[in-house]
């Protein structure tokens, strides 16, 4: 009788255990932000400027930029001066949505016909279809103090549609020599997906005009 009672208890226990819900597996720990966040890819931009002064020889100015998060790298040729190159490193800042501010302070080394150290800055302020931007720097010459100079390129543009921009521009540069320290003019820009084209006309109505053509591609 004891054995029969024991067997009955064992059978009831097994049936009860079989009907109990299985223990769920503990959830896996959520990945930390460093594990789940994938690094943003590099943003590469190639830009070629063609300078066509009316009374001087024309020349090309190629620029390459690379951005990775906050890091900004840049290489230029014929920018600060003819037969002169420069390498840059900077830090990207971005703020605002309705009014969008972008700011990149940089430091560069200049070598070639002009040699020196150049702190600079690129900045833009955009509100809806209007954008104000400037690229500027000061080159401290390491060969002759008299060769130090300030360079700037401000623009004010309006974009009635996404692919078209119209506006005013100015430049103060060393490679082009005119009667004006600062050249003034207008700009017309077209863009499509990764490609951009801009035409600048400076000095119309003041002195001999200069034409600058820009072709850019962003990866």
Give a written overview of the molecule.
- It is a single chain.
- With 219 residues, the chain is mainly beta.
- The chain has a single domain (40-218), classed as Beta Barrel (Porin).
- It is 10% helix and 57% strand.
- It has 2 helices and 13 strands; from the N terminus they run ααβββββββββββββ.
- It has helices spanning 2-19, 33-36; strands spanning 43-53, 59-68, 71-77, 84-91, 93-95, 99-112, 116-127, 130-141, 149-161, 164-171, 183-192, 195-202, 210-218.
- It has a 12-stranded antiparallel beta barrel with strand order 1-2-3-4-6-7-8-9-10-11-12-13.
- The longest helix has 18 residues, at 2-19.
- The chain starts with a helix and ends with a strand.
- Mean pLDDT is 85; it is low at 1-26.
Helix/strand layout:
Layout: H1 2-19, H2 33-36, E1 43-53, E2 59-68, E3 71-77, E4 84-91, E5 93-95, E6 99-112, E7 116-127, E8 130-141, E9 149-161, E10 164-171, E11 183-192, E12 195-202, E13 210-218
Antiparallel strand pairs: 1-2, 1-13, 2-3, 3-4, 4-6, 5-6, 6-7, 7-8, 8-9, 9-10, 10-11, 11-12, 12-13
């Amino acid at each position: 009788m004891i054995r029969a009672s024991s067997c009955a208890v064992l059978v009831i226990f097994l049936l009860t255990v079989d009907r109990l819900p299985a223990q769920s597996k503990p959830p896996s720990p959520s990945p930390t932000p460093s594990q789940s966040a994938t690094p943003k890819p590099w943003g590469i931009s190639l830009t070629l400027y063609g300078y066509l002064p009316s009374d001087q020889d024309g020349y090309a100015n190629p620029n390459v930029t690379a951005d990775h998060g906050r890091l900004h790298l840049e290489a230029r040729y014929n920018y600060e001066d003819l037969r002169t190159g420069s390498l840059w490193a900077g830090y990207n800042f971005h703020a605002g949505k309705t009014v969008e501010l972008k700011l990149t302070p940089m430091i560069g080394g200049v070598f070639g016909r002009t040699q020196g150290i150049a702190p600079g800055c690129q900045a833009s302020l955009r509100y809806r279809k209007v954008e104000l931007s400037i690229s500027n720097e000061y080159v401290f010459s390491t060969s002759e103090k008299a060769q130090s100079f300030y360079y700037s390129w401000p623009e004010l543009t309006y974009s009635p549609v996404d692919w078209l921009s119209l506006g005013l521009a100015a430049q103060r540069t060393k490679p082009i020599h005119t009667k004006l320290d600062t050249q003034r003019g207008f700009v017309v820009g077209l863009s499509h997906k990764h490609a951009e084209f801009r035409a600048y006309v400076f000095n119309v109505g003041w002195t001999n005009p200069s034409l600058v053509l820009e072709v850019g591609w962003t990866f």
